[in-house]
């Protein structure tokens, strides 16, 4: 515990910075680092709370003041403090980053009471895909996107910039994938029921059964553990998760970036798995196939064909589209294969192979958008003379 003298020293250091300013003002590097390491602490608290929260809700009846909620709330409180500091002082963010952080935090704070009202009106919220929960994910999406932009634009080049950027993308990946943990916990909980065992407490099963108007049987358990269509898990995993890994590879700009971001998240899930199960909480399937997806994204960037660069004619755009189609098809097929392999070896939510068409189309759109962004950045980085030559080339 820090002494009063330490707090006074910290206050004396911070007080001169507490001045009104516009976003984008020059930020001293020591203050910049304090702000963004504060974000790392806040997002870590939210990560630990959310990781515990899913397992908690597969065991106990919901409680507003459950320990996972309190842990997440501590992170949210720090998020609010940092958002106010950025907004008032203008330090550490440009206008775009500040707007993303403010909108994201605002959406999240609005979603919290709406979620509480939803539970009061509808009782147990069977799925993590409910509208109020989706608002929480959307708010966190914009919030972390703003943090990523702020760090990306303001951190000096070097190892620390790369490592922290990767950490923020790992938090971003966790938020994007979070709703799918319902299926990852659900498939093992349903399997336990089939083996004449249950992870959930009787009060939770009774409440869920009463809400569905059914006895406690397999149909009820299936509705409780896997309440969304089976095709949703692989399609969402391919499109949403790979979009984060593609963005991470683009912004970090190094081979292995996507693999390390995916590996960091999978490593965290692997670490907390025994901690939760030894504490008596239900286990979950861990998405080990994310590491395969990350490696494939890194490899794909070695052979990718930029889809849109300078205005050089339809041929280049067409070639880029075909290149993206080939790359994303190979990546999508390999990820589906990895999910299938994991299902047989360790366990994974049900895989509907026919959904590969929709996953492929979604991933193609993401890949083309990523190529367009990459081409736009390259064009901006070119000298004016090079752009003119590229435009004039037949």
UniProtKB/TrEMBL annotation:
Keyword vocabulary terms for this entry: Membrane, Transmembrane, Transmembrane helix
Transmembrane feature ranges: 31-49, 69-89, 96-114, 134-155, 162-178, 231-248, 255-273, 285-303, 310-331, 351-370
Signal peptide as annotated in the record: none
Top-rank lineage group of the source organism: Bacteria
Protein name: DUF2029 domain-containing protein
């Amino acid at each position: 515990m820090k002494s009063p003298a330490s707090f006074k020293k910290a206050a004396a250091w911070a007080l001169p910075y507490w001045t009104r300013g516009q976003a984008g003002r020059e930020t001293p590097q020591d203050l910049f680092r304090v702000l963004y390491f504060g974000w790392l602490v806040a997002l870590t608290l939210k990560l630990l709370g959310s990781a515990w929260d899913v397992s908690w809700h597969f065991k106990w009846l919901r409680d507003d003041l459950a320990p996972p909620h309190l842990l997440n709330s501590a992170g949210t409180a720090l998020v609010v403090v940092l958002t106010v500091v950025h907004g008032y002082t203008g330090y550490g963010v440009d206008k775009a980053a500040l707007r993303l952080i403010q909108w994201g935090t605002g959406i999240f704070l609005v979603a919290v009471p709406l979620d509480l009202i939803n539970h009061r009106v509808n009782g147990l919220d069977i799925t993590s895909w409910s509208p109020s929960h989706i608002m929480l994910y959307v708010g966190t999406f914009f919030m972390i996107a703003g943090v990523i932009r702020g760090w990306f634009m303001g951190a000096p080049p070097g190892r620390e910039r790369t490592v922290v950027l990767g950490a923020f993308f790992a938090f971003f990946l966790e938020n994007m994938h979070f709703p799918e943990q319902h299926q990852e916990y659900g498939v093992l909980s349903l399997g336990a029921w089939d083996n004449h065992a249950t992870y959930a407490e009787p009060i939770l099963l009774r409440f869920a059964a009463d809400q569905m108007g059914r006895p406690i049987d397999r149909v009820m358990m299936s509705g409780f553990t896997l309440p969304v269509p089976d095709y949703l898990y692989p399609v969402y995993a391919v499109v949403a998760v790979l979009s984060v890994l593609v963005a991470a590879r683009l912004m970090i700009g190094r081979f292995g970036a996507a693999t390390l971001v995916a590996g960091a998240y999978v490593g965290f899930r692997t670490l907390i798995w025994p901690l939760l199960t030894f504490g008596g909480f239900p286990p979950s399937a861990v998405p080990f196939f994310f590491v395969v997806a990350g490696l494939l994204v890194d490899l794909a960037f070695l052979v990718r064909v930029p889809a849109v660069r300078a205005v050089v004619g339809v041929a280049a755009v067409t070639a880029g589209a075909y290149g993206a189609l080939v790359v994303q098809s190979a990546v999508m097929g390999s990820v589906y294969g990895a999910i299938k392999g994991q299902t047989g070896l360790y366990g994974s939510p049900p895989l509907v192979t026919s959904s590969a068409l929709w996953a492929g189309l979604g991933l193609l759109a993401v890949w083309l958008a990523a190529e367009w962004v990459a081409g736009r950045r390259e064009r901006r980085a070119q000298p004016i003379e090079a752009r003119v030559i590229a435009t004039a080339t037949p």
